């Protein structure tokens, strides 16, 4: 449904920009109308392709990885040979 709405909005945007950007048409000059029809047709076909289902036949479900183990950071003191030093240590359980 979301893709269909986006495709329709894209077509409406392109059509709206063509209305304001094209010069006034003359009876003997059909080039502008041909270009406009080609752009609108391309937008419609592109929207239909973009909103179509994938070639393999259906949605793909990917399993989410399990959440990481609950961990926390804690300050730990240790003797480095010269004195007591404090460092952060990650503790997981």
From TrEMBL:
Keyword Signal recorded: yes
Signal peptide: 1-27
Source organism, top-level taxon: Bacteria
Listed transmembrane segments: 31-50
Keyword vocabulary terms for this entry: Membrane, Signal, Transmembrane, Transmembrane helix
Keyword Signal: yes
Protein name from the UniProt record: PXPV repeat-containing protein
